[in-house]
Specification:
By secondary structure, the protein is mainly beta. It contains no helices and eleven strands. Strands 2, 4, 5, 6, 9, 10 and 11 form a seven-stranded mixed sheet that branches. Strands 1-3-8-7 form a four-stranded antiparallel sheet, with no helix packed on it. The N and C termini lie far apart (about 40 Å).
Length: about 120
């Protein structure tokens, strides 16, 4: 079992930056692949970024490459999402998620943190 709690969201002006954090419970955090997803009002949830359990491999939605960076600190049971040059279209609820291996579905989800980018 993994419990996930996101933080770091808020209101930021266009062009600004935010760093989201996702704190995980459980001693086996370092065995899970982690991902960030977002859902804007009235839209479907979309993939943002993912990182393997070791932190050695990352992937991003094509549209976000170069602006967003995912990282993790297994000693702190935390995964991060650094978001730079934010745009109004980045406004959404951001969720972190965990899966037990690369081929599994994301079975654990946090409650989400709201990010609002004003123009």
């Amino acid at each position: 079992q993994v419990q996930l709690v996101e933080s770091g969201g808020g209101l930021v002006q266009e062009g600004g930056s935010l760093r989201l954090s996702c704190a995980a419970s459980g001693r086996t955090f370092n065995m899970y692949d982690m991902g960030w997803f977002r859902q804007a009002l009235g839209k479907e949830r979309e993939f943002v970024a993912a990182i393997r359990w070791s932190g050695g491999s990352t992937s991003y939605a094509d549209s976000l490459k170069g602006r967003f960076t995912i990282s993790r600190d297994n000693a702190k049971n935390t995964v991060y999402l650094q978001m730079n040059r934010l745009k109004p279209e980045d406004t959404a609820v951001y969720h972190c998620a965990a899966r037990s291996n690369y081929f599994a579905t994301y079975g654990y989800w946090g409650q989400g943190t709201q990010v609002t980018v004003s123009s």
